[in-house]
Amino acid sequence: MPVTIDAWHITGQSQIDSYVGRWAELAVLLVNELAVTQALGRPRTPPADRLAALSQAFDQHGWIPTRALTAADADRLADVAAALRPAFTGAPDATAVLNETLVRHGAVPNLHGDPPILAFHRPGSDLVDAWAADAATALAMVIGVGQGQRLRACEAGGCDLVFLDVTRNASRRFCGLSCQNRAKASAYRARRRT
């Protein structure tokens, strides 16, 4: 049964609400910043200074942490990113890894705050557990409502970036225009050779 709560980014009949979308976007950001070894056709070394890399990525994407992020938090988030990555790649163990992440970080639905909001982490959780629980729950919800095909990894050679496909028919194949153009050019050159 599709979830239709808010016309967030996805257009069409099957939509993902803004809460799930927000945390799925955080999962994308964490994976792309901390767990990708090649991007846009080039090898990529995971950042030595994870805190600086995340701070820069948060600024670029307009993500405003509610609590100050520390270097230790950034290091723990690298482990979270590695655990979330299989959900985007369709790895055979993706569901098991996502379930382990939910348990490890204490994902539990509850209302807290004033005004109350629905969250998927325990009140009083540290930043990493809260973000991991909410991001993993968002990915689980996307998968659980039959929209797992929207969690994608770029299909271009030499690119491991992941994304949430918000197209109407879930047909996006590449992380961006650069990889799409590289793939098309490569396919064209291959056809010309034959």
TrEMBL record:
Task: Pinpoint the Zinc finger CGNR domain residues.
Answer: 150-192
Q: Check the record and name the Pfam families matching this protein.
A: zf-CGNR
* Superkingdom of this protein's organism: Bacteria
Under SUPFAM superfamilies, the record lists: Jann2411-like
Name this protein carries in UniProt: Conserved protein containing a Zn-ribbon-like motif, possibly RNA-binding
Which source organism does the UniProt entry give? Nonomuraea jiangxiensis
